[in-house]
Structure formats: structure tokens, C-alpha cells
Amino acid sequence: MLKIDIDEIDRTDCGNQIHQLIQELFPICRSITGDGVRETLSIIKKHISLDICEVPTGTQAFDWVVPQEWNIKDAYIIGPNGEKILDFKNSNLHVVNYSTAINQTMSLDELKGHIHTLPDAPDWIPYRTSYYNPGWGFCMTHKQFLMLEDGNYEVVIDSEHSDGSLTYGEFFIPGSTKDEILIFSHCCHPSLCNDNLSGVAIATFLANLMQTKESRYSYRFVFSPASIGSITWMSENEHKLANIKHGLVIAVAGDNGHMTYKKTKAENAELDIAVQVVLQQKGLEFDILDFSPWGYDERQFNSPGINLSVGRLTRTPNGCFPEYHTSADNLDFVKANALADSYATYLDVFNVLDNNYTFINQSPKCEPQLGKRGLYRKTGGHKDVGKRELAMLWVMNMSDGSQSLLDIADKSKLDFDVLVRAAADLLDCDLLAIA
Amino acid sequence: MLKIDIDEIDRTDCGNQIHQLIQELFPICRSITGDGVRETLSIIKKHISLDICEVPTGTQAFDWVVPQEWNIKDAYIIGPNGEKILDFKNSNLHVVNYSTAINQTMSLDELKGHIHTLPDAPDWIPYRTSYYNPGWGFCMTHKQFLMLEDGNYEVVIDSEHSDGSLTYGEFFIPGSTKDEILIFSHCCHPSLCNDNLSGVAIATFLANLMQTKESRYSYRFVFSPASIGSITWMSENEHKLANIKHGLVIAVAGDNGHMTYKKTKAENAELDIAVQVVLQQKGLEFDILDFSPWGYDERQFNSPGINLSVGRLTRTPNGCFPEYHTSADNLDFVKANALADSYATYLDVFNVLDNNYTFINQSPKCEPQLGKRGLYRKTGGHKDVGKRELAMLWVMNMSDGSQSLLDIADKSKLDFDVLVRAAADLLDCDLLAIA
Amino acid sequence: MLKIDIDEIDRTDCGNQIHQLIQELFPICRSITGDGVRETLSIIKKHISLDICEVPTGTQAFDWVVPQEWNIKDAYIIGPNGEKILDFKNSNLHVVNYSTAINQTMSLDELKGHIHTLPDAPDWIPYRTSYYNPGWGFCMTHKQFLMLEDGNYEVVIDSEHSDGSLTYGEFFIPGSTKDEILIFSHCCHPSLCNDNLSGVAIATFLANLMQTKESRYSYRFVFSPASIGSITWMSENEHKLANIKHGLVIAVAGDNGHMTYKKTKAENAELDIAVQVVLQQKGLEFDILDFSPWGYDERQFNSPGINLSVGRLTRTPNGCFPEYHTSADNLDFVKANALADSYATYLDVFNVLDNNYTFINQSPKCEPQLGKRGLYRKTGGHKDVGKRELAMLWVMNMSDGSQSLLDIADKSKLDFDVLVRAAADLLDCDLLAIA
After folding, report:
1. With an 8 Å Cβ cutoff, is A380 touching chain C?
2. Among C360, C361, C362, C365, the residue to mutate for chain B (most B Cβ within 10 A)
3. Is C236 found in the same domain as C131?
4. ipTM value for the complex
5. Of the residues C131, C162, C193, which one is the last residue of a structural domain?
6. For C232, nearest residue in chain A (alpha carbons)
7. What is the Cα–Cα distance from A247 to B164, expressed in whole angstroms?
8. Where are the alpha helices (DSSP H) in A190-302?
């Protein structure tokens, strides 16, 4: 049985290490293709021996085609008085991601048709993309936008679209069975910390730890661009999907909000119950969302032709915090303690899934005599029963081969940990067998 | 796909027309058999080309036998002082429906044993029947009853029971499939407007409109007496029942109360969900009742040997408004705007049922690329997704051949209309096929 | 059909008789084996012709072995000043049940390691046992404990463990079918009234009455020690288990609290619904508990290799009243009126189970004409329908061979009694047949 002692994690140290990796990845300008993703994966590779795969532009990926690579060297706007009023070097969010190149002088009016701002958050730069609709644009604070003066602007985006490839990274840890747990983190967003350097960095540290553990499940970590990236990964690796029993999209895991789980399409899958048990037993506030085909890559994994049991475990979900997809999702916004707490929670989900066995009671006619095996207290007549004895009674009573420990936890309202220990004791004296 | 634009209905005009038909039908003295039903059906026939069927007295109808015809020419009571104190010509409710003939002078005491009143509503005449228990009686206001003076009364009911037939009307509109929707309205009550000239008149106008529409379902409208009438219709037309997929009893649809749906016996039939979706999307108050074997003819349609999926959609249901089965259920009690609103609601139920297809996603592995088909907005990075795009994502995600659009509406909480439009767009570009 | 008229029970007389039997049984020192149980069963045998069975020490009973007999003649403690400060003759709770013999003088300190008290209830003597852990001990009030003076104590327990047998009693009443209802009461507790002389005495009177009734079910009453007793009974009588369709553990049925039903493991068994219907129709407060593998012998009956549909019907359950397992659970604590009320409730459960037939409507196409069979009122047009007619309509509508009267009660919200009478009437005129 997998045993990761969540309470033994040094959360300060662990949170700081994760935050440090985020700092290292923050400045890189990522997109759905191009050198930004490559550079990101090569940094991850310093922690875990990632397989980095390149899928050529033009490759069919189910209904999609791998697009051209986009790389950008520079971008800026020079105002009527000759000053550089916007510079890609200050923030890669300033350029609409995947913009075509431009080098032109134009009137303010013409320029304005290409500028995106957030009137409701006038100090923040929005993050915008234009992946499948060739065009160019800039993003700036609304404050700056309001102060733009009439006149001619020199507008430069030194970007290039060219045949190349889409890049993803994969890391596999074999378990004692071929059943797999998939961990997916999207790595296509530029300088945005919570979405999703938090997920990328935590997944790196999870992989790092899990390769040192013995577990029933194999673990497959995938780092790829969102949407076209996960679609391409599935299309290229369709033969691997059959072994995936459970999957988690790990994202938005560094803000101060509470944890939020979005269920699989089935909504009562083993994973759904496991995550809810973990969140309940943490004793902190949390939210459970029903599945919907909108959000991150769980959409793709839960499509009807793929149908993997993949949920999404985040802190405050996408779109639900004001800093989402803005320059305010920065290095200050993600906190070491929140990152460490998310990390520990993911590990606990692994714990629960790995230990969620189904047993068959080997002495099923009435209760067996626990006392003669040293498993029961010595005097009788007391008002109630100890938690450990009660856990053994529940496990014995429900273990007819159709109920897993999670089912027993749900029914008995006992902590999963207590049930795991009770089951281990009963297994030791042959009162249980694995179904 | 059926498309009736509910918002385009001219409710004033439509409500007035329905009310006018009710006015024309109001004076007729109907019963379970006899000329009153015949005259009623012949008036309906001026609007739709109704088949009028006569089933002879004595015909076996399952456990029942078609009873004799009842016809009445006159009825009155002459008081001790020689004045006519009650006259059938003023209200056909004055005579207990199906009364045997009488022509006799009797004491007040003897007469009182045959008089029905409503002590709690002393100004109203009750409606009473004596179908399967030969006898006679009068109904009057309780006020009048209290003022009856001692003495002899001349009591006349000039009615006749004779072999003849039971009469019903049927109107069939073929659709593109042989699957049928049954609309049933009982037409046996004398001068009572809400129960059920409202249902009879609305059904007439529904039939009139539906014969001009192309729809998947065929529609069968039946106008017949309640209980023995519906039983006789089923007994005579047993071969037609297999094609009936859904049915609605239309009644009590003209009062000012909100709409009330009584579910089919299954309680989660497609019809049950369709009606609830329609009522929810109207945005007005409504009630949902569980099935019970008491009420109108839904009792018969849902009997265990018939088992049709028939619900009942009314406004304030039978027995739940004080004017029910009294002279106060008159021409003032039913309102043109309520009649029009009910009419529009029934049509919307037809809309939903007709468009409730089940689809199979033709590109089920991950989401298809909607953008290249012009079905998706152009820039990315926004906080949320448009309703139309979301509807397409839901339809694609759930269309594995097991989920209808109503199932998708229930799950997604999106409006049925929006889903129908999304499905039509996806169908157009071959991303869906009808299951 | 079984017909016990609950309202005709003379509750004063009946409650007094049950209380008298409890008084007679109270002084006996029972244990899981030994003469106390034997004497108890021989007193019950004065009321019903009980079969008394002896199972020898050493007999294998599933995972257990029948233990030695324990018999005790005397026990006391003589204090430093030569006075007898504790005497078994005053209360058999003073000795830890199943204590080994001792006859020794010891210091207060040594003695204290063997004394059990209730600091929170300083006037009461606790009940403690030491069945499977050889040792000895005394129980006393905490008040007395605090006043023990230093010095030497003469400690005597004149008990004996010896090969012998475990004793249980069984009483069988054949019904018209071989399907059985099992009634189980544990009889191993010494002078404790609510737990469980109340159950033992009530079961005796139930058996006494039921042997005079004609019923569909056979009834099997078992009086045995708890745990090892029920386990031994099942082990010795495994061939009888297949006929047991429902079972009730009867215990703790004499206090003033309201009734509490603990469901079978299935939690929606016919028995579970029957008991809930009975408790609802009593109109008094009651509690329903989910199954858990802790409590009385329902644990054993619901173990996965036995899987009998056995629930537990008590008043305030074990462990939930302060007097539980203390000297305060005495003759004053159980009340004649509560005992009579429990007695009547158990009988009503028998009533409901026995009458819970499933029928098939013999005239299933539409409603049959009840009027021609004298089963329907004579005038029509009324606002609502009588309870009796409504019950007939529900029974006719739902009797397709898959729904029992309890299912119909649940759906219709009608009283079970009313449905039974309606079904009897319909059966009489061949409109129903038993499925």
C-alpha cells in the first residue's frame, strides 16, 4: 500500500521550492507552439527526466491540424513624440499571443482597433490570443489607453509563423500494475503565474516525489499546451489511453482561495469520490463543481470518443478570480503556502486512490472473534466502541467483494485513513483478501 | 424541425377567438351521451374536419357497457303559489345530469330529498350527476333552498333515456413519422366554462394550427365524454394506441391561476421533462403534481393495461378553485388572456417534443475545431464563453446516442431553444447525426 | 389475512403483565453461559412451550468456540474494619460478569486496579464484563469508591468456570407458508431491566399471542445470549436460515423514550418500509437509524455470509440513555405503558408484513366499473373522492404484479389499513388476484 505521510511534508521548504521554479519559468513568452514551450520543458527536465516530443506542423490531430510555430523577437509602439510607449520586453502580455508580424506607422484611430484593455481593471494588462484567426494586436492597461494622444504611431511586432512543430513533455513512472493515473498541466500561457505556472511547477515536484515511491498505479505526467496540445498528445498517443484509470488536470493551484474540484463527466467515478473524501478530511472549506464542457483540458479528456475519467483540481477556478488572464496574475499572486497545500492535497488523492482496494471477508458468517487475534479491547459493557474497532467491523461487514474502502468510508462516515489501517490489520491476520 | 414561434402569436386576437367559441358552446346541455355532445362536436367541425363516431348503446367497452342516451327537453318546479320557482331553461345545471323523468306533485319534504345545494357558496348552483344510479334531482342556490315554503310542488323533468349511442369526435394530422401525440379533451359537461369548454375550444384551435405545420409527430385530437367516453374510445380504437408516444389531457385552461402539470404514472417520462422545461422557461409560477389515479381521463390512459404516457396540463386543477363544478364557472370566469397563454404553452410543449432529438457526435475524439467552420468567436483569453458556443460544446459532449436534447437541457441548465439552434448548426456541418 | 386489532389491546393489563414477568426475572444473575440463563428460560417456558437447547463447551461456532460455563455462588469485600463493604447478594452488577474466582487479602491500592465506577454518575454501579480475557473485578458506585479507606481488604469471588454448555431457547409457530419472521431477544444481561428483560418479556407475550393467530408467515422466537449466543444459534441452525424472510431484534423496549428503528443493511428492505409505515401511522415521534455493524445481534444477522434482513426495533437505543448498563436500569426505569406500547407496535409490524401482498389487477384496461359492484358512491360531480374509493383506485392502478401494498402506501400516502381493506374488497369481487 502507498504511504505518503502528508503531515510530514515540510510545507515551508516545499512551497518555497515550487515558488522558485515558478520564478524561473515566469519571464518566458510561451504560446501553443514555439521556443517558449521548448525552453519551459527544458527547465522542467532539470528536475525530472522528461521525454520531450516534437509533432510537426501540418500533422493531423483528430479534427485539428498542428499549426505553425510562432516565435517572437520583439514588439513595441513608438508614440507621436518619439517615445517608446509600450515594450514587449516589459511584459510579454503586451502582444496578443500568436500575432502576425507588423511594422507600420498608423494613426491612433487605426491603432485603437488593435488594442485590448480592461476598463474595469484599469491598471492591469489583459492576456489575449488570436490562434486560429490571423491578425495582430496589443494589450495595455486601460489607464494608458485613455492617455494615448492623437498622432502617428510606429507599430512593430517582430514575430514569425513558420513550419516547425508543437512540443510537449511526458514523464512516466511505472507502478506495480499497468493501470495509470494521468496528471496533465498546460504550459502554453506566457507570464501568468497561477494559470498555469503553479500547475506546471507542482506537477514537476509531484513527479519528482512519486518516482521514489512504490505504488500500485503507474503515473503519467504530461506537460503540453492547452487544447491543441492535449488534443495532439491524445492523437499521437491513442494507444496509451486504455490504461488510464483516473486523471487530474492540475492548474491554478497557487492562489489563496480554497480548493475546487470539478468532477468527471460521470460525476460519481472513483476519482470523484476519492477527491471529495480527501477534501472533506482536510477539514477546510472547498467547492465541488459539476462537470461542464468548458474550462481546461478536462473538456477534451471527457469528450465522448475519449471518455477518460479525468477531473480537475484547482484552487479558485479559471475565470473566478479578478486577476485571471491579466498581468496581476504575477509572482506575488501565487503564495508558497498555497502551493504547498495544493501539492499535499494532490499527494493525498494519490494515497486514497492507491489504497482504495476492494476486499472479501474471509470469515463472513457473523463477526469473527477479533479478541483472540489481539484486535479488540478487553473489558465489555462500555457505552460505545473505539474508532479502530468500529472501522474493523465496518470493513468486515461490507467486504463482500462489491464495496471498496471508499464505499465503506462513504457509508460509515469514518476517515479513510482509519479504514486503511483497519483493513491492513485484518489483511495481516487473513480475515480479508483483496477481491 | 418543428418551429412554432410562440412569441409571434397575437395573444389578444387568439384569446378572443377561443373565448368566442366557448360562448357558442356554453348554452348547450351536454351529458355523457345524447344530442348535447353531438351539437358540440358539430360546432367544432366548423373549425376542423372532425370525424364524428357513434358507438351504440350496449356496446361492451372493456369492463363497461355504453349506456343509453339521455336527452332532456324541459324541467321546472312550480311552487305552492303557482309560480315557476326553478327553470331548466335558465341553467341546465338545475337538473341533476342524467336524471330520470318525473312529473309529479309532492310535498316540500319529499322534494328536499332530491335537491342539491352548496351551503358554503349560497349564491351558486352545484353541478351534480347520477350516471349509473337511476334517479332524479335538482340543483339550486342554497339561498333559494332556505326560502322554500311549505306546501305542494309540481315537479317536472321531461327527459328520456333510450337506446342510441355515445358520440365522440376525432381529428388526425399525419406527421413525418407514425409516432403520435394524443390530445384529449372531455366534452360532457354542460354549461361549465373552465371545466371544460376551455379545453375543448383550445384543442380545436391547436388542431387548426397544427394541420398547417410540418412536424415529426402525428397528432391525434380526441373530443369525447369523460370516463365512459375515453374508455369507449380506447376500447373501439385499441389498435391505435401503440403509436401514441405522448399524450396530454387538456382541460381547465382558462382561469387566471398559474399552470399546473400532473405527471404521467412513470413521472420521469420524456413528456414529463418536456412540460417541465417549457414551464420553467416561461419564467412564470407553475405547479407540478405527482400522478394519482384520480382526476380526469389521465386515470384511464395510465391504467396498468393501457399504460400510455399521458400527462395533464391545466391551469388551477379540478377541485382546487371554488367555482369548480358550480354555476360560477361561467363565461366571466374564463379569461381571453389566460386561454391564449394556455394555448401558447401547449404549442411550446409540441415544439419541445418535436425537436427533442438524440444525436451522435460525428467527431467524438476531443472537441472538433468549431472555428474553422465559422462557429466560434475569433479572439481567445476571455473570462467566459458565449451561450451559443457553450450550447454547442454541451451538445457535442453529451451526444453519444444516449442523451436527448432534453437530457442535455436538464444537465446544462441551458435553454432548450438555444440547444436546438446549436444542434441545428452542428447538424448543418455534419458534426452531428440523428441517432 | 392476519388481523390483530391493535386498538383492542388492553394496554394497562398487558403492560402490567409484562412488567410482572420482568420483576420475576430481575434478580437472576445471567451471563453468556451458566445457570442464570437456564433459570431465565425455564421461567419463560411457563408462558410458552419453549425448546431449550444446550450447546457443549468447545463446540465450534463459525469463527468462535462455545466458552466454558460460568457460575457464581457469592462475592463480597470485607474492609479494613472487618465490615462487609460490598456484597454480590445486594446486586449482581457488583461483580464483573464472568470474573475468575479469587479469595485473597490485599491492599487498597491493589484492589483499586480491579474496581470499575462511573465518576459521572456517582450513585450508580456500572455493568462490566470480561468474557474473553480471564480476570476478575468489582463494580461499585463512585461515591463508595471515594470513601474507601487505606488498609487491607478481604476479597472473595466464589465463581467457577467449567465445561458445560451454552443455553438458548427457541419457539416456533407455523404459518400458512414456510416463510418465517425471526424475533430475537438477548437474555444474557444480569439485573438490567430495559436491556434486556424488556425485550425478553415482550417477546414472550408476543409469542403467546401469535400462537393463537392464523397468519401467512411462520414465526420463530429465539432467546439467547448476545453475540456468542446468536452466533452459536446460527451455527447450530444454519439450515433454518433460508426460510427467514424478515427478522427483528427486540430489545430496550420499556423506557419512556420514543421508538427507534435501526434499518437492515439493505436499508430499503420490505421490513424497513413496513416498520417505517407502522411508526408513521402511529402518529408519535420516532427515529430511524441507518444500519451500522455496532449495537446488538443485528450485527451478526447482517454479516456478509449470513445476510438476513434483520432490523432492530427499540425505544431509546443502547448507549443513548444515561441509565444504560448501570444499576439505574432497574424495575422503576421500565414502565408498564411503554412496554405495552412497544408490544402493540411489534404486533402492528406483524400485521403489515403479513398483509403486504402484491396483486395483479384482473381488469387492467382502464378503470373497472366499481359502481356496478357496489363499491362506488352514487352521485357524481363532487370536489373530491372518498378515502375508500381513492384507495381502490390506487390499488387497481398500481397492481401490475410489481408493486406491493407497501409500495402503494408509500406512493399514495394512504394509510396501510385503508389499502388493505380496499384490496380485500377488490379481491372479493375478483378484480384482483394475488401475484
Report:
1. yes
2. C365
3. no
4. 0.93
5. C162
6. A366
7. 74
8. 198-210, 228-236, 270-282, 298-301
